[in-house]
Specification:
Elements lengths: L3 E7 L6 H4 E7 L7 E10 L2 H7 L13 E2 L3 E9 L11 E5 L8 E5 L4 E3 L4 H20 L7 E4 L7 H10 L3 E6 L2 H9 L4 E4 L5 H8 L4 E6 L3 H9 L1 E9 L18 H5 L5 E4 L9 H13 L18 H9 L8 E3 L1
Parallel strand pairs: 9-10, 9-12, 10-11, 12-13, 13-14
Antiparallel strand pairs: 1-2, 1-4, 3-5, 3-7, 3-15, 5-6, 6-8
Helix pairs in contact: 2-10, 3-4, 3-9
Length: 334
């Protein structure tokens, strides 16, 4: 192992990933007591979060360059510190931690690592997006069986897990996408009704085919999709806000609509927000269950087939994801 390794840092705040970041060499640090040194094999790409870091607009993070990038990583343990139990050299591990992803090696607290069978991009997707989908549906949306569940960005890294988990729970799933290729993929995953919003009107579909309304609307897009979901909630319906990709990089829009309570009150419906870092108490239990489903062959983890190899490809991966071209989780091979 060389004396140094490479990682991506924000070296200036320009507002976009490519010009804000650079690759630097940094000395190796031996793991201390209770720590392990991990050779990262794959990093998850979270383009909107990355872009917002480059603008210093994440409310709970203060970005002061040089600032380490990347949140999700999976790899193998290559060294252990003193008083480490449960992990050995060669074990495959994964973690979700700001600054742990876009780098070739990381030193991490053994208590923050999850041991897995192998360091694959599929398991990386499960530990990040799959866990988020499970926690959001079960803990925030209070998902039951026999409900109508609509999912925006349904073929994305998060959405394809929402579709599968909602279907496994015995629900009718409406999946939104913008391409015929992704529509076919969503049908393979079990979606009952796929809406290609480029060729169909979502509002017309909901009004015509689902007059009772939506029990759960899981939205990470915002804009007109959010408005349509809000207007078509069922009695006791829950609209889950898990992002707003359609306008995250635009000025806040003043929309001339009736206030939301006029649409919610008479239905006893609700709007609920979900962001994974706000619910760490549910992560470990959800991680165990999501891995078990995957190992038993009851859950698919889709990884976008477009190859992004090396830290030099990180900006390409971010821009690819921002363009909405992905089907499944976008990962960076390290």
């Amino acid at each position: 192992m060389a004396d140094t390794y490479r990682k991506i840092v924000i070296h200036r705040l320009t507002g976009e990933f490519r010009s804000s970041t650079t690759i630097v060499e940094t000395p190796h640090v031996a793991p201390g007591p209770g720590e392990v040194l991990v050779r990262n094999r794959y990093a998850g790409v979270n383009a909107i979060f990355d872009q917002n870091l480059c603008r210093n607009t994440i409310r709970y993070v203060n970005v002061e360059p040089p600032f380490d990038m990347g949140v999700e990583a999976i790899g193998e343990v290559v060294a252990v510190g003193a008083r480490v139990e449960g992990l050995s050299v060669g074990d495959a591990v994964t973690n979700v931690k700001l600054g742990a992803g876009y780098r070739e090696y990381q030193v991490a607290d053994v208590g923050k690592m999850i041991r897995v069978r192998e360091a694959t991009p599929e398991i990386l997707a499960l530990m990040a997006s799959g866990v988020s989908a499970m926690v959001a549906l079960e803990r925030i949306a209070d998902m039951k069986s026999g409900e109508i569940v609509a999912v925006s960005a349904a073929a994305g890294g998060l959405g394809h897990f929402v579709v599968q988990l909602a279907k496994r729970a015995g629900n009718h799933v409406i999946a939104l996408t913008g391409s015929d290729h992704k529509a076919a993929l969503l049908r393979e995953l079990g979606a009952d009704r796929v809406v290609n919003y480029r060729t169909e009107s979502l509002r017309e579909v909901l009004a015509r085919e689902y007059p009772r309304g939506l029990d759960i609307a899981y939205d990470s897009v915002g804009g007109e999709i959010f408005d349509a979901f809000l207007d078509h909630l069922a009695m006791y319906g829950r609209l889950i806000v898990s992002g707003h990709t359609s306008d995250f990089d635009k000025p806040i829009e003043d929309v001339p609509h009736p206030r939301a309570y006029h649409k919610l009150y008479w239905k006893s419906a609700s709007i609920r927000a979900f962001q994974n870092p706000a619910f760490p108490q549910y992560f470990d239990e959800a991680a165990r269950r999501i891995l078990d489903l995957y190992y038993r062959g009851e859950l698919r983890a889709l990884v976008d087939p477009t190859p992004f190899t090396g830290l030099e490809s990180a900006a390409d991966a971010v821009e690819y994801l921002l363009a909405g071209r992905n089907a499944g989780k976008v990962v960076l091979r390290l």
